[in-house]
């Protein structure tokens, strides 16, 4: 059994997330923090494998909680789970230390697969969020505007690693990638680990940005 903290103030959403987590992990124990203060109080009470953090809370933003969790429970995987899909919230969450960003309006099947991927070392990024990250890089990075003046970064990836990186940047998890490339999830996990090491990144969001910067992904 492992513990998951859900930081959410809406009771009906708490109930839904508890059911969702139960389907994703039969041996899960869910604890709740309905406010920032309650969530902080949960830290240190038990080991938390995962924290799902909403952003809009009665006593502040969930963004304030993320660095607090990182300091007091560095092994906890922090995922933002929200309705906000704008660039500001996405990038602020990533900068604060979230390793994934999921939208609540995704289908139950997608959310369950994404949550399972977290515990298998595959931090989740909703496909829409991956696209927004790449759009932001495209709009702000001169490398994408003028390759002649600023050529793409060169990273020594083989063909299979490049394929894996492109699929990661589209928000796909290891199971989906395995199906597309006719590989086992274990093999895909090994490739993802190698890609992250070569790129010197630790999250899907960072990998998606690097895919854009090295010229593997183009946004039209």
TrEMBL record:
GO terms for molecular function: DNA binding. Keywords: DNA-binding, Phosphoprotein, Transcription, Transcription regulation. It comes from the Bacteria. The keyword NADP does not apply. Transmembrane segments: none annotated. The keyword Phosphoprotein applies. Residues 150-215 form the HTH luxR-type domain. The modification 4-aspartylphosphate is found at residue 54. CDD domains: LuxR_C_like (cd06170), REC_NarL-like (cd17535). Gene3D superfamilies: 3.40.50.2300. GO terms for biological process: phosphorelay signal transduction system; regulation of DNA-templated transcription. Residues 3-119 form the Response regulatory domain. This is Two component transcriptional regulator, LuxR family.
């Amino acid at each position: 059994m492992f513990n998951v903290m859900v930081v959410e103030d809406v009771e009906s959403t708490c109930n839904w997330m508890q059911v969702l987590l139960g389907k994703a992990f039969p041996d899960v124990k869910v604890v709740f923090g309905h406010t920032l203060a309650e969530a902080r109080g949960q830290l240190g009470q038990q080991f938390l494998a995962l924290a799902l953090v909403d952003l809009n809370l009665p006593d502040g933003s969930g963004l304030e909680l993320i660095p607090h969790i990182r300091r007091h429970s560095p092994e906890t995987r922090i995922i933002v789970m929200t309705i906000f899909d704008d660039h500001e919230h996405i990038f602020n969450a990533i900068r604060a230390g979230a390793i994934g960003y999921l939208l609540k309006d995704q289908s139950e099947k997608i959310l369950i697969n994404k949550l399972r991927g977290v515990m298998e070392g595959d931090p989740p990024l909703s496909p829409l969020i991956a696209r927004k990250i790449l759009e932001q890089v495209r709009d702000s990075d001169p490398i994408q505007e003028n390759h002649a003046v600023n050529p793409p970064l060169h990273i020594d990836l083989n063909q299979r690693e490049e394929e894996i990186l492109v699929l990661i940047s589209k928000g796909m998890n290891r199971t989906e990638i395995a199906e597309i490339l006719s590989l086992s999830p274990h093999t895909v996990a090994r490739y993802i680990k190698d890609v992250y090491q070569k790129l010197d990144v630790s999250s899907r969001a960072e990998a998606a940005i690097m895919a854009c910067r090295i010229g593997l992904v183009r946004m039209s």
